[in-house]
Amino acid sequence: MLDKIGDFFRDRLQVSDDGHDAEDAARLAAAALLFEAAMSDYDLGDEERSMIQQLVRQQFDLSDEEASALATLAQERVRESTGLHGFTSLINQHWSEHHRLNLVEQMWRVVYADGRLDDHELHLMRKIQRLLHIPQKDFVSAKLRHKPE
Questions:
Q1: Within 10 A of 137 (CB to CB), how many other CB atoms are there?
Q2: Which has more pLDDT, 8 or 143?
Q3: 3-state secondary structure of 61
Q4: I want to staple 29 with a disulfide (CB 3.0 to 4.6 A). Which of 49, 77, 80, 90 is the partner?
Q5: In terms of DSSP H, where are the helices of 1-135?
Q6: Other beta carbons less than 10 A from residue 21's beta carbon
Q7: Residue 10 clears pLDDT 50, i.e. is over it
Q8: Entry pTM
Q9: Per-residue CA distances from 21 to 2, 17, 53, 80, 113 (Å)
């Protein structure tokens, strides 16, 4: 799996092979978690797909084509995965709490892209909070910032 991820970043983003594989894997894991959030209500809508594309493009400074390719690869990883632990452990190993909280913020944006919060989405987000070691107060603040009025 790491080989395929590294190939993607080298081919599409001209990343050299000087130790970036783990960071590339964490980026893919983050994109995969965005898809997990979008699909947790069993309805991956156009709003959510568009939001993920935008967030991935902005966070990793990618072109539209590169963001689309990363999103496609991330969605494949979600379909192949057996759980969240693989994604969250990579992120925990390579990202600071600040970056992990930023990811949770993005996940809330994806969850609320369709204007509502489903019980399955809330359950997933609470699980992600624990797996990424996000303090409760930061988790709730992020949720409230992105909740539609």
A1: 8
A2: 143
A3: coil
A4: 90
A5: 2-13, 21-39, 46-60, 64-80, 85-94, 97-111, 119-131
A6: 16
A7: no
A8: 0.82
A9: 7, 7, 22, 20, 31
Amino acid, res. 5: I
Q: 119-131 and 21-39 helices cross at what angle (nearest 10)? A: 150
Beta-carbon neighbour count of residue 105 at 10 Å?
A: 18
In angstroms, how far is CA 44 from the centroid of its own chain? Answer: 14
DSSP 8-state secondary structure symbol assigned to residue 42: S
Task: Supply the CATH number for residue 66's domain.
Answer: 1.10.3680.10
Whole domain around residue 58: which residue ranges?
2-146
For residues 10 and 17, the answer to whether their CB atoms sit within 8 Å is yes
Domains held by the chain: number: 1
Q: What is the pLDDT of residue 20?
A: 63
Residue range 112-141, pLDDT digits in tens: 988 889 999 999 999 999 999 999 999 999
**String of DSSP letters for 20-41:** -HHHHHHHHHHHHHHHHHHHTT
AA letter at 117: L
d(CA 132, CA 23): 16
